Every structure is written in C-alpha cells, then in structure tokens.
Amino acid sequence: MTPVRYEADDGVGVITLDRPEAMNSLDTATKVALRDAVLAAADDDTVRAVVLTGSGKAFCVGQDLKEHAQALASGDSGLAETVREHYNPTVKALLTMPKPVVAAVNGVAAGAGASYAFACDLRIVADTAGFNLAFAAIGLSSDTGSSWTLPRLVGWAKARELLFLPRTVKADEALALGLATEVVLADDVLPRALELARGFAAGPTRAYAALRRALEFSATHGLDDSLGHEADMMQWTGASHDHRAAVDAFLSKQKAVFRGH
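and the corresponding structure tokens:
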C-alpha cells in the first residue's frame, strides 16, 4: 500500500499522507511518494487547487526516527542528502506551484510535518491538533523551509522562541499567532479544507498564481523592485480570459465564471 495517496476530482487535488500506524512519519518511501505527489499536483493543469492532509490521528510528525536511527548506526546520517533530494523539492513545490494549497491539519504536525503545513497558503486546523518545531529537541537545525516560512507567519522573535524552545503550540494559540487560518472540530477539518479548495478551483487561477509570485518576490526584494514586479503581474493577469470575463460579468450584473486562464 502506498504511503501517500493522490486523488484529483473536479479541479481539486487531494494529497494524503497515509501511514497512520506511524503517525504519518516520513521514512524514505514516504518522502519520495510525497515529493512525487506534490510535483504531480503542481504539474496537473486540470487541478486548480490542492489539499494536503494526513490520515488517522496525526497530520505528520516529521522524520521517521526509527529509520533515521538505523542510518546513524551505519555512520552516515544522510541528512543533507534527504533534505536536498526529498524535503527541499517538496516544500519548494508547495510554496511555488501556480495554484492555492490548503493544509487540512487533522492532528499533530511536528518537525517537517509542521513545516509542510506552513508552506501552504491556508491551514485549517483541528481543535485537537497542534504544531511543534521539534528540531532542537533532537539536536538538529531546522529544515523543510521553516527558517523561511515561520518568521513570515509569526515574526522574527516568536520564530526564534518556537525553534529554540520547542513545545506543542495548541490550536487556539496557533490561531492567535497566525499559524492556523481557522480552527474547527476535528471531523470538520477535511470538509472545510475541501470547501475552500473547491472555491479556489472555481476561481481565477492565474490571479492566485500571480499573488503567490508577488508575495514570494516581495519577501526578498526592496520596494522599488516589488512595485515593478506588481506591474508585471498586473499586466499578466490583465491579459487573462478570467479578468475580461469578470469585468464583463460586473458590467452586466452577472456572476463571473472563471476558467482558470
């Protein structure tokens, strides 16, 4: 049985980590399958929004430490290799694919699992779930983009606190900090995430892609460059079918129908 399921229907791709017996921890097979599923969703032109979730009680607790212990015993942790080959391509695709990504955080998200959720545009979090930046607790630095995403979500000082003093940030605090977009009952996590994703799939896909690109660009560029990039993005989206359709719909007092191009 594959450790990651990818299903696409009606414009929405759903990626599910499916190792509930191991709390969806990331052994090599799971890391490869997740990377490939995320890249497939990114490249699938029929998919206009993506949901990332876990099965069972956990979203993802990060690296499978049992497998990792075996690597350490062999004399080579293999950490640099797995970060470059597995974690980095996955999180980069989550952050840069030209479509919205919603995390349905059904349970605890720790280490790389938390980092994957932080790479999504929105995080729908179960009231029983929580986030833990557990890296320092096992003597490691951060990975999976958390050094980039976490300060942008909670600020520089709070990011340092959460990384240096790892603890479980429960759902209500996660909402207050900005780690969670919404907190809902556990049974409502996936339905709510799918509701949002279906709305995105029926929306102006090129505009969402441009917004993602603009936010990423401005994070590493100054004001003048960012203003210039905004002009480029406005030109690109202004030439789209969806923009013209929305203007025509507004003038005729009709509801716009977006085709994603």
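(Above: one complete record from the training split.) The chain is about 50% helix and 15% strand.
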